[in-house]
Amino acid sequence: MGLLMAWLGCWQLTRAAQKRQLLELNQQRGQLELSLQDLLVKEDRYGYQLSLEGGFAPGLTLFLDNQVYQGQPGYQVLRPLVTAQGLLLVDLGWVPQGEDRQVIPAVSQPAGEYRIRGRVARPYHPPLRLGGPEEEWPTRVQAIDTPRLAARWQRPVLPFVLILEEGGSWPELVRHKPDNPMTPERHIGYAVQWFAMTLTLAGLTLWWWRKGAAHDDDKEVE
């Protein structure tokens, strides 16, 4: 058991180093702005800045469920931007759920062309999907499944999401950077806990061994 806990502590330190490298890489990529054509030729696209111009497909809105902001439940609102390469899902921001969960919040849909800029991110796929209505439009979804959306909309959907940072105007939405729940510091904190438990177990084992040895000595004296 002690060896396992020590291994888990070392594993958390390794994860902290990996997460730190990933954050540094994303910070470097966040300073580079690419066109959509340049982005599509890259195998690893996430973290770059993307700037483009276009209009949103009318009548198509996704409400990504189970999104909490400042302790309040709500949705990330996504709309597909029409590009020559396919529909690009743009995360416009967060909206509160409201008192009645059965009622989808109203979000304005202004027409026209937009010049937007944002950060390229992975489509959201939670490890565990919760049940919920997914067949009504506007659609409340538990994950961003681009192949399914492409089949539903009968149009190509690009396999990444643009988190909007500049451009457009949706006053009812809150733009914010999603919190990263597993920072390097948190991994280090877990590692410290595992090492502390390892030392505690070692100390208890040593105390138990010494107690047993002293008991045997007392028997020999008798």
TrEMBL record:
Topology relative to the membrane: Multi-pass membrane protein
Pfam family name, one: SURF1
UniProt subcellular location: Cell membrane; Membrane
InterPro entries, A to Z: Surf1/Shy1 (IPR002994), Surf1/Surf4 (IPR045214)
Coiled coil: 15-42
CDD domains assigned to the protein according to its UniProt record, in alphabetical order: SURF1
Transmembrane stretches, start-end: 188-209
Keywords for this protein: Cell membrane, Coiled coil, Membrane, Transmembrane, Transmembrane helix
Sequence similarity: Belongs to the SURF1 family.
Protein name: SURF1-like protein
